[in-house]
Design a protein that fits this description.
It is a single chain. This protein is of the alpha/beta class. It has one domain: TIM Barrel, CATH 3.20.20.70. The chain has 9 helices and 13 strands. The strands form 2 sheets. Strands 2-5-6-7-8-10-11-12 form an 8-stranded parallel β-barrel, surrounded by 6 helices. Strands 1-13 form a two-stranded antiparallel ribbon. Helix 4 packs parallel to helix 5 and helix 6 runs parallel beside helix 7.
Length: about 250
């Protein structure tokens, strides 16, 4: 198998969904049914082995790590995080920061970027607090959606629409943003976020814009680039071989 990702239209960031010490396959955000990955790249679901394979076989430098035990149960897997950092991996980590203490601790553990997901932010003021605590160069806001709807308590946000939330976040100092619809994750249905990405890019030229969920092949990556996206989060298409070709 030969990687066909050296000439893609935007950066590929492989995803590690970490649960109970293993990398699992996410499907449509139904976390209760997630199972350890089965991959054409390697015969293992161990986090360090998967990350090393992404780097050695595919040359992918940055990795997005979603610590699902931290996001769901407030129990970060610090040992796995430290092992990945010690191996030299550049990590964008969502460990469910519900306050600035978690975000600061992630920086102390030498992650490349802290991802703050709307799913675990209970109030808009926390965005400003995180920007002040971490700095906007190392903070990434994840605009978490499910079937197009933001994963928030709408009553606590002044404009709970996706574009309204994106605008508010940029006004609060966010310069890096992930647009992720969990309903598309692992479904091989194509990214459902591209129209929203176009709207965000039209309004904000300078931010780093990342999307994911449902990426199937190089055509989807090209479509994302055409929507103004700088990088795409990919998992299933890497493990299933959709981004590889037989030679």
């Amino acid at each position: 198998m030969t990687p066909q990702i050296d000439s893609v239209a935007c950066e590929i960031i492989p995803v590690l969904d970490l649960m109970h010490g293993q990398i699992v396959r996410g499907i449509a955000g139904r976390r209760e049914s997630y199972q350890p990955i089965q991959s054409q790249l390697l015969d293992s679901a161990r986090p360090l082995e998967v990350a090393n394979t992404f780097q050695s076989q595919l040359g992918l430098e940055r990795i997005y790590l979603a610590d699902l035990d931290a996001i769901q149960h407030d129990q970060p897997d610090w040992d796995t995080l430290d092992a990945l950092v010690a191996a030299g991996h550049r990590l964008l980590v969502d460990a469910g920061p519900r306050n600035t203490d978690r975000a600061v601790r992630l920086i102390e553990h030498r992650v490349d970027s802290v991802v703050a997901g709307l799913e675990t932010l209970d109030r808009p003021e926390l965005i400003t607090e995180l920007v002040e605590a971490v700095g906007n160069s190392q903070l990434v806001l994840s605009l978490d959606l499910k079937n197009g709807q933001p994963m928030i308590d709408a009553g606590t946000w002044p404009d709970p629409t996706p574009l309204g939330l994106a605008t508010m976040a940029v006004d609060m100092g966010i310069q890096r943003m992930i647009v992720l619809d969990l309903a598309g994750v692992g479904t091989q249905g194509g990214p459902p976020t591209l129209e929203l990405c176009r709207q965000i890019r039209k309004r904000f030229d300078e931010i780093e814009l990342i999307t994911g969920g449902g990426i199937r092949d190089l055509d989807d990556i090209t479509a994302a680039a055409n929507a103004g996206v700088d990088a795409v989060l990919v998992a299933s298409a890497l493990h299933d071989g959709s981004l590889l070709e037989t030679t």
